[in-house]
Design a protein that fits this description.
mainly alpha, single chain, 103 residues
């Protein structure tokens, strides 16, 4: 959400997104059009569809959790290497700090 969008505009949408879709399962069950409407007007309108698709794949293939390897993440709908690396880094930091990442 933050790519080329001002933080002040993202924060309320981010909070609304997490309230509406608190888990990957909730996002996967949602109507893709509803996900896109919630995302609007942040731009990059293909992203909510990709997130929805990733959530559906994660539920179907990984029990509702994101996979923990770069290879498995690359098998999901289009995720770039930077996002994959960042996700794996954050997951590693959560493990190092003995904390769970939110669903």
């Amino acid at each position: 959400m933050l790519q080329q969008t001002q933080v002040e505009r993202v924060i309320p949408k981010y909070r609304q997104f997490l309230r509406t879709y608190p888990t990957l399962r909730a996002l996967a069950r949602a109507d893709a059009g509803d996900v896109r409407r919630l995302w609007y007007p942040l731009g990059y309108n293909a992203r909510p569809f990709r997130l929805h698709s990733i959530a559906r794949e994660s539920v179907a293939r990984y029990g509702g959790r994101l996979p923990d390897s770069a290879e498995a993440l690359r098998a999901l709908p289009p995720l770039g290497d930077v996002l994959i690396a960042g996700s794996l880094y954050l997951a590693g930091e959560a493990l190092r700090l003995n904390r769970e990442l939110p669903d």
